[in-house]
Amino acid sequence: MKKILALAMALSVVLSLTACGGGEEQRVVNVCSWGEYIDEDLIYQFEDETGIKVNYQVAESNEVLYSQLKTGGADYDVIVPSDYMIARLISEGMLAELDYANIPNYDLIDDQYKHLSFDPDNKYTVPYTFGTLGIIYNTTMVDGPITSWDAMFDEKYAGNVLMIRNSRDALAAALLDLGYDINTTDKAEIQAAYQLLSDAKDKGVYQAFVMDEVFNKMEGGNAAIAMYYAGDYLTMLENNPDLAFVVPKEGSNWFVDAMCVLKDAQHQEEAEEWINFIASTSSSLANMDYIWYASPNKEALEEYPAYYQETYSEDLDMGLYEIMAAPKDVLDRCTLYENLPSDTLTLYNDLWTELGI
Amino acid sequence: MKHKLSRFAIPYVIWMALFVVIPIILVVVYAFSSASGGFTLENFSRLGTYTVVFTRSFRLALIATLICLLIGYPVSYMMSKEGPRFQRIAMVLIMLPMWMNFLLRTYSWMSILENNGLLNQLFQKIGLIALYNQVFGTDLTFFRMLNTQGAVVLGMVYNYLPFMILPIYSVIVKLDSSLIEAARDLGANTFHVFRRVILPLSLPGVLSGITMVFVPSVSTFAISKMLGGGTEMMLGDLIEQQFLGGAYNPQLGAAISLVMMLIVVACMVVMNRFGEGEEQAVML
């Protein structure tokens, strides 16, 4: 008798679970992005407008996302990886081609953010944000304005420099300082960059290797120099007005994070609806205002200063706006990351481990 | 009766199989396979380069465990000698930090130990840094505390100390007081009672305390990353990097994990042997 009862209970549980999926079909879309990377009101707005439920999740980094996708532990529809990771996902056949007829707002994206190296035919992506990597420094703790990557390796600032804890960015800084291309696959060049980094580390230049810990450290005046992303600099600036940001004269990396749909996505149609909604001018403006990363939406880029004026009743500091949305002459000095061949990636990983030993 | 008990154990057995046994099997499989899937020993041949990381991790974990023991044992001992009211309050105080998330607690240590952090500001205010500069003729504006191995050990001790205190305390508090009275009747002084009766009988608690502190310490990556500044990798960091770093090499990560697990198990076996021997020797 008890067994029958248990069976009945189990059955009812199963039935009630499936009931959610059946009947009046609830449309859903599973989105995975980065932390603090969207104005969350947009999610509710989208749900209200379309009736599609958004499961919004965040991953810690491109690498974590990749590892999740590889191990099959995730069933995302839309992801927002960065350029080099997109190239890698495309080359491994993990992304679905988009039907741009369903994404009319794609046309609003400025042409200079289309057909980029990671997706030359622009079949898989709709750019979400772009930005630059640069040096953030505390003007009260350095001798003069910083203009060169040299500062990241300078003994003068020993114990006061925060190096980024990410092999690609850290080695890019060294490569740029040596005048090499950040996408080089030349072993000797990468080795030389590693040597620069490793010598600086041995001389005690680096106080620490950090990712998001950089916020607290720079805001609290605990370090003089760090390398990080422009959008995050603007967040730090709100808490410490002594901070300055520069895209060094040797050039830098600029990045694009773009929305893509995974190949085996269950909800491609909903995914495209979501992408279209996010790419719209009003969403782009809301996002820019919230996350301080520039949107590639042409109208939004033009309208943002007015939007800011209207929202806060004060004029937008155009100098800061140019840090957020780097103008063409800055972007021309910068290079996108490309996906590196696997033996170069392995070299990066080995060198990075060696640095940590 | 026995049959019934084993039926109650079924959920646990399933749990263990799903979340302990299968993952370990996966680790072993991964450790012996190449990226393309075939059998290989190459993952292990690379481990030699990481000897420094292994020794560093084990050294720091050992130091942390030792400090936990040196602090934890006296605390547990004192606690068990006090009245039940005191014991309850002390227990709550020891558990209290654990009600907060581990990462948050470690994060707050960062702002305490920073160059411009709370401690350095305090030292500045009370003139400790000026005094230090005068005595040693240095020119410091702060003491470097964060991003050192000392900070990592501090983080481990702070986070894992309760795991040392609780098992030792729960063993000592249950000690049969008649044994201690008997020892006293036989003429043992306080030191001898402790050395010959209490200490040996509390060894099981000490051993499980050591295990519960040492094992998480040796594999930690959050603490070393946040408090150690990430300049000197520990085993946890190294393993994490294989899975979540740029190169995505789960096979190597699994090999490192496997070797780490084996070393830890070996340590535990040796220690438990030693523990058993001690206990028996005392009984004889």
Descriptive report:
The complex is a heterodimer of chains A (357) and B (284). Chain A is an alpha/beta fold. Chain A folds into 2 domains: 177 residues, Periplasmic binding protein-like II (D-Maltodextrin-Binding Protein, domain 2); 147 residues, Periplasmic binding protein-like II (D-Maltodextrin-Binding Protein, domain 2). Chain A is built from 14 helices and 10 strands. In chain A, strands 1, 2, 3, 4, 5, 6, 7, 8, 9 and 10 form a 10-stranded mixed beta sheet that branches. In chain A, 45% of the residues are buried. About 3% of the residues of chain A have low confidence. Chain B is built from 14 helices and no strands. The longest helix of chain B has 34 residues. Chain B is globular. Classes of the chains: A alpha/beta (357), B mainly alpha (284).
> Main beta sheet of chain A: strand number and arrangement?
10 strands, mixed
Structural class of chain B: mainly alpha
Q: How big is the Rg of chain B?
A: 23 Å
Q: Could you tell me the number of beta strands of chain A?
A: 10
Oligomeric state of the chains in view: heterodimer
Largest interface: A-B, 35 and 32 residues
Give the overall shape of chain B, derived from the CA principal axes. globular
Domain unit count of chain A? 2
What's the CATH first level of the largest domain in chain A? Answer: Alpha Beta
The CATH architecture of chain B: Orthogonal Bundle
Secondary-structure element sequence of chain B?
HHHHHHHHHHHHHH
- Uncertain segments of chain B: none
- How many strand elements of chain B? 0
Broad shape of chain A? globular
